[in-house]
Write a structure and sequence with these properties.
Elements lengths: L7 H14 L3 E2 L7 H24 L3 H11 L1 H4 L2 H18 L2 H19 L6 H8 L15 H4 L2 H18 L5 H20 L6 H7 E5 L17 H10 L4 H10 L4 H11 E3 L1 H14 L8 H8 L59 E4 L5 E4 L6 H4 L4 E2 L23 H18 L3 H11 L3 H4 L1 H17 L3 H18 L4 H8 L12 H4 L2 H15 L6 H20 L11 H5 L18 H12 L13 E3 L5 E3 L10 H11 L3 H10 L4 H8 L1
Antiparallel strand pairs: 1-6, 2-3, 4-5, 7-8
Pfam family, one: CTLH
InterPro entries: CTLH/CRA (IPR024964), CTLH_C (IPR006595), Ubq-SigPath_Reg (IPR050618)
Protein name: CTLH domain-containing protein
Length: 680
Amino acid sequence: MDTMQVNWEALDALVIDFAKSERLFADSSPPSSPLTSSASSSYRWRRLICQIRRSLEFGDIDAAIDLLRVNAPVLLDDRRLLFCLQKQKFIELLRKGTDEDRDSAIRCARKSLAPCALDAYPEAYEEFKHVLLAFIYDKDDEMSPVANEWSAKRRYEIAGLISSVLRAELHAYDPIFSMALRYLISIHKGFCLRQGVSSPISNLTERLLLEERDPPPRIQENLYEAPPFDEVDIQALAHAVELTRQGAVESLKFAKGDLHKAFQNELCRIKLDISELDELVHEYCVYRGIVEYVPVNHVDQLNHGSNTSPNSSFGSENDVSVTSDPVEDSQTKTEPVCNQRSSVEARYLCDAPALNEDCSTSRTCKSKDNKVVVHRNHQTPSGERGKRKRWRGRNDDSEYCRNLKSPPWCTNLSHEVDKHHEIILGVKEFTTKGMAAEVVDEINYLDPEFFDLNPTLLFQLKQAEFYKHIHGGDQASAMKIASSYLGPLAAKDSTLLKPLKETLLALLRPPDEQPQTADDFRFDALAASLQVAVGRRLGIEEPQLMKIVRAALYTHTEWFKLQMCRDGFESLLWINSLKCVGSRFRRPPPSGDGSCSSKSLNDASGQASSSLITLSSCTNNNTRMGADGCSVSRISTVDIGCDENAVLKVMEFLALPRADAIHLLAQYNGNAETVIQQLF
């Protein structure tokens, strides 16, 4: 799983979109476009849902009803939901135990609950008579016939139900990143369980992805007789989010047949530990240089709502808005540059030296654990550092979110570790800009043994330098690099022979046909690899989110190999972009609210519905190049002697996963009727 290549540029975009959608960055710019206004609206709806959920979980039913009446009165027109709320209000009044509240419960039952029970749904009146038993059975009596009604668990069930309905009604879906993470981790856990292998990230996923889900929203009565749905859609939804076939049908009914809306509804029902997720995102953002590191005491002050001055780095909630530019903050002060530096070193900024501090030399030595210790004051280039965001966190939601923890390598952050972090960010930035020769010189200066331990990274840097000379028309310099570096490296490592041959082909192209250097070589992928490798040598481990995404993408690929089909929802959640390391990342159209945009839904609508059926037409080859330049695995069911209709039939009748249905069909010559007869 560690060998899975990930497009970190795409993950950066997803994480930034998530942080902006959730107001985790400090940014005082007002909304400047309809897109950011849409994002603000979606954020307000999610906050509203959070407030209503909290009121219901604390038993304050009146507060929840008031919020619904003002913001979403259409939900109170649904007599089933209103009856559910009034019944819980009746219980909560009795729970208080005073004579006054008991009288209020009687009035509630007479004026609100009983009239609502008459036309809510057929069983409602029986439920009304049953809940009246709460008058005579104590709330602590676990053997009473109304123990379930008294249970505090009912609060959370109702809160989850109302949240599910509100989310779908207001289109207040979670950002794409959090939905993709739910989906990938669910597939990862299912794959590991099925294959009987241990998960290398189980300690992370168990904390992050919670077992319970919100209850499914109840379908409207006028949808009970909905037309039959395509079996392909039913099976695609059922196996994507682990539903029974009937559960998938009910979800499609609630979404009025919209597969992708049903898919988003079901994903958002899966619960994430938000505080854990924020910690992972914060650690990743600090590591990747997206945000500045903030000392823990500053974050604590934020989370407790401490006052800040107008010039503080952190604004209040009212000052925060989402902008389309992920990096526009330029209020970071620059520090003096040490004079006695090489041209490469001068691109870093160093802290102002103390009177007794030697700023004229740079020394490298080894610690006891064989990690490099760098004695110098490097920092990231001032322009790049000035672009970083300031982390705000969920300071307006402190009851739900614990104080943000620092990344493991930032705990008790020493000045030396802080300098090391700035060094690896500088290496990343220079590599991204294509400054391969400067990066090689700088890393050799920092750690002369680094490339002896990482020859592939040296090959890739020299390969990039080779392309740069070819693009500039300097073939002599390119040949010198090939003969001095690329050839000797490939001679020592046979796996580099193939990329060496492909690199040398650039010499044969006419100058007017030479592609752009960036198209020949993906610097962002190399920059991420260098950042991780150099960081480890300096004692800074990669963030845990990187480990989760890498392992989850690997199992996602392996899972759909078992299913012998493509994932019809992967483009909806940017999963295909995360896997496209060999081609330039193309950002999907922004949704404005963090959820999947209507355009992306339309673009993918045919893909998910036909994700199973399209396999029958893929008999010519098992692998093709997708429209985005990514390799797409295609394994045809025709190759094992069965067609797609037979697979769907066995999946439907036997409630089996796709892979199991295919294996059974392979044993019985692809005949679905024979399979069903044998098992029954």
